Every structure is written in C-alpha cells, then in structure tokens.
Amino acid sequence: MKPLDAHTSQMIYKDLYLQDHIRRRGLLADSLAAAYHLEMVEAGLESFLAKMRAGATADEETLSGITLYRYDGGTINGAELAAAATQFAAEGYDPKDRQAVLNLAARAVVPDALFMKAAQQEGVDRDVELTEWLARKKADLLVTQLRVEVLAAKVSISEEELQAYFAQHPEKFRKLEQTQIQEVLVATAAEAAVVVRRVNQGESLGELAKQLSIRPPDQRDAEGRLTLYLTYSRALHLDLIKAAAEVEPGELVGPVETHGGFSVFRVLSRRGEQETFAEARQRVQATVNWIKKQQVFEAFLAELRQKYAAQVQVREDHLQQVFAGG
C-alpha cells in the first residue's frame, strides 16, 4: 500500500480528532441532560419560531421571555439561542426553520448551558487562576467594546449597497444543503438487521419508526423523518451524513453505527437552492458590514498617522489584533 503524504495524514488525523471530540462532547451533554432533567418546552419553541417568521431580530427584547428548555436550576431562552445563531450566520442558519433551530440548540446552546451549570456546581468559577484570567478577559472586552463603538459610529449601509453585493456574489448565498431521510434508530446492530429484513419483506419504514425508533421525538417526526443539514447536523449526525452522501434517494441504508445506536434509513430528498435577497438579507448585511468595517479601520489608521505623526508611534500590529474581526 502506498504511504499517505503528510498533508493527507494530517487531514485524516484532524477529522478523527474532531469526530472523537464531538462524540465525547455529545456523551457528556447527554449525561448532563439526564442528570439535570433537561426538557424542551414545545410552546416556547413554537413562540420563538413565530417571532422569527414575523421578522424578529436577535436583539429583540421579547425573546428573553421565551423559555425553550428547562433543567434543574435553570432555563434556556430565545435570546440565548438567537445570540448563539449569530456565530453561525455565515453558514446559512435559518431561525425560521424548526429543524435548524433544534440542531443549533443541540450543537451549541444546550451543551454550553449544561456545562456551565456543572462547572458552577463543581466550584470552577471560584478557582483563583480562573478568577485572574476572567479579570484579564474583562479588560480585553473593554477594548473590544471601544472598537465596536468607534466602528459603529462610522459605518452605515444603504439598501442599494446590500442589493448590489448580493447581485455580484450570488454563489455566497445558497440555501443550506440539506438531506431529508426516513430512519429507524435502534440500540443494537442485531435489532437493526431485523429492521432491514422487515423492510425488505415489504414493511413500511415509517410504521417501523413509530414502533421501534429510539431517536428523540424532538429530532424527527412520528414516521422517522428528519433533515440533515450539511453544516449544523455534523455535530449530531456525522455518520449519517457520510452514509447518506454515498447513496441515491430511495435506497435502503444500514445498519450504520451512529451517535445513540444503529440506524437504518432511506434518503428522501436533497436540496441546496439559491436564496432570494429577502431570505439572504441578514447574511448579506453581516458580510457587507464586515467589509465596510475593514475599510473604516484603514481610514482610522491613516487618520492616526496624520494627527499624531510627531507624538505617537502607531503600533499597527497591535491595532490589527484589536480590530481583527470587527
């Protein structure tokens, strides 16, 4: 067998490390969810989706009053989920889509809340070294806030600029690639083999999902249908995504060992269409905003050079660190 080159070896190592990290994080989150009796509030989720579909933004105050999850000693509200979503804006997060919201909650918001709760119970927040680190972090945040205020005062974006950027870069604004599958998840490979045999003998995969699937109801519908988002679902469904990518719609797949058990499924559909300007507007605005802030930064440097040329040495390397990503 031909030995792998260094680049390929490194990529395989990174992929395996990521998979192990995701697996361990998922197991810890699952154990904490059970320990703290985590439960989703269906009415809160519907209220959050209604707000998003009505055009609410991440900073809308009413979102903080919507409880999405409860656990012993705490809750997770709509404002927390909306804030987390800004981290994934470039990946096409759609806060109006129920499955995307659930995937994001499972990927980031719920685990982070449970990890914080566990850390506080263990007294990690009272550790001397951590307290000192937080003090340094607070100083860094003050500098960051100054950056935000300086740039916000100087950046304005017109609707015409947004539409022009969207028209010039349509390839950047496509709907998140997604694959819908119908699945039965069971605990063992032997049970999965029985499911395969029963389907091949003519039984309905949907009926078997109703009877046998152990996948949590908030991740699927009654007949086992769920949507795998190429980006958001990776943390939860990496094995399913890989298996689904190799088959045509309608083909029975499995058993596939995955997080939570063994999966037998069919691919129902795939899509990744071009977004309209209305659908992509928030991401267009975020992108144009970032570009214009870089332009403002360059102007800010030029102004400093001119105003304080005889008095101050401008350390551009330090300023680049302060303003990076603004």
Summarize the structure.
The protein has helices at residues 6-35, 42-53, 78-85, 98-121, 128-152, 159-168, 189-200, 205-212, 234-245, 277-307, 316-323, and strands at residues 39-40, 67-71, 74-77, 178-186, 225-229, 252-258, 261-271. With 326 residues, the chain is α+β, with helices and mostly antiparallel strands.
Descriptive terms for the model:
13% strand, three-stranded antiparallel beta sheet, four-stranded antiparallel beta sheet, Chitinase A, domain 3, 55% helix, 7 strands, 11 helices, 326 residues, alpha+beta, 3 domains
What does this structure look like?
With 326 residues, the chain is of the alpha+beta class. It has three domains: 6-121, no CATH class; 144-171 and 276-323, no CATH class; 178-271, Roll (Chitinase A, domain 3). The chain is built from eleven helices and seven strands. Helix 1 crosses helix 4. The termini are far apart.
List the helices and strands and how they pair.
Layout: H1 6-35, E1 39-40, H2 42-53, E2 67-71, E3 74-77, H3 78-85, H4 98-121, H5 128-152, H6 159-168, E4 178-186, H7 189-200, H8 205-212, E5 225-229, H9 234-245, E6 252-258, E7 261-271, H10 277-307, H11 316-323
Antiparallel strand pairs: 1-2, 2-3, 4-5, 4-7, 6-7
Helix pairs in contact: 1-4, 3-4, 6-10
